[in-house]
Amino acid sequence: MLGASGFIGSAVSAALTARPGRLRLVARRPSPVPDDAVADVEVLAADLTAPGVLADAVADADAVVHLVAHTEGGWRVSDGDTAAERVNLGLIEDLVEVCRARDGSVPPVVVFASSALIGDSDDAGGPRTAYCRQKLAAERLLAGATGQGVLRGVSLRLSSVYGHGPQAAPRVVEVMVRKAIAGEQLTMWHDGTIRRDLLHVDDATTAVLSALAHADRLAGGHWPIGTGRGEPLGKVFEEISEIVADHTGEPAVSVVTVDPPPNSYATDLVDLETDASRFQAVTGWRPQVSLRAGLRRTVEALAGSASR
Q1: 239-265: string of b/e by CB count within 10 Å (b at 16+)?
Q2: Residue 119 — left, alpha, or beta (φ > 0 → left; ψ -120 to 50 → alpha)?
Q3: Which of 21, 29, 193, 307 has its CA 20 to 30 A from that of 123?
């Protein structure tokens, strides 16, 4: 498990520790292991970008869950950012070569967290951001290695994942919840009609587990993962304001439109709806957490953290 202490990684790690088997949790900082863990868990704190480290991290693994991403400053990766490219693409290059060097073993499963923001990879314009281009290149490496029998790669194009967990990068729902708890107005860079497919982290976790369970049927492909519903962000922000007010007993904060900052991306102002029907047909996976329930969980967790 690579990226075990991150936002999605910590949730997937918790789910995997509850299952029998051998599990290696790899991250820059040590990953906590629940006292009631069923799995035989090894914790490895390591910098995967250092030479030779990734090979040790995945040694003898039957399956690798790759949830590592360059998140310093969020996912706003600039062209020419070699540190981001080393993490988002270079680690997949390393992983393919490590798997290629294995002699006579069954090709390992690799479940890779990609992004629904890639959109249609056959679009003449291609992905709009450096981050998405790096993720797409990584997907293609995994698909090629799968065709060569080096590994069994499954790329999950996750929609906008939200919830409560380690704050490795700013995510819009959590940022707005924290602002509302602090009594600050919620700001949009548009008129509120931009739609986002918001997937709770618990549903992202079950998608990863489903990918592991059905890897042979999914191998070689990319699979959009989301709820299939694009929620207008203006409505989402108003709901956050309402839920926070109900939780804290304070007046609801206002939701306002402001000019986008100079570092905004084109993808900030496009709708995102993710059709997961292909993945659902193969695995039977379905999202279970409604937006209202997910927002309440997030508010309750972050309000509790703020009070502590």
Answers
A1: bbbebbeebbeeebbebeeeeeeeeeb
A2: left
A3: 193
- In angstroms, rounded to a whole number, what is the distance separating the alpha carbons of residues 283 and 206? 11
Q: How many helices (H) and strands (E) does the chain have?
A: 11, 12
The string of pLDDT tens digits covering residues 83-113 is 889 999 999 999 999 999 998 779 999 999 9
Task: Note whether residue 287 is domain-resident.
Answer: yes
The 10 Å Cβ neighbour count of residue 219 is 21
| Domain presence at residue 106 | no
**Tokens 């509850």 identify what position?**
18
Task: Tell me the mean pLDDT in the region 149-156.
Answer: 98
**Residue 122: what pLDDT?**
47
First to last CA, the chain: 31
* 228-231, Cβ contacts within 8 angstroms, sequence gap of 24 or more: 228/197, 228/273, 228/274, 228/275, 228/276, 228/277, 229/197, 229/273, 230/195, 230/196, 230/197, 230/271, 230/272, 230/273, 231/195, 231/196, 231/197, 231/198, 231/291
CA–CA gap between residue 289 and residue 165 (Å, rounded): 16
The pLDDT value given to residue 78: 60
Domain that holds residue 303: 162-198+227-307
User: Is residue 39 predicted with pLDDT exceeding 90?
Assistant: yes
Q: How far apart are CA 3 and CA 13, in angstroms?
A: 9
- 224 three-state secondary structure: strand
- Residue 157 CA neighbour count, 13 Å, CB half: 30
The total of structural domains in the chain comes to 1
Sorting pLDDT into bands at 50, 70 and 90, what band is 128? Answer: low
Q: Is residue 258 part of a domain?
A: yes
164 half-sphere exposure, CB direction, 13 A CA radius: 16
Q: What is the CATH number of the domain that holds 256?
A: 3.90.25.10
CA–CA distance, 271 with 194 (Å, rounded to integer): 5
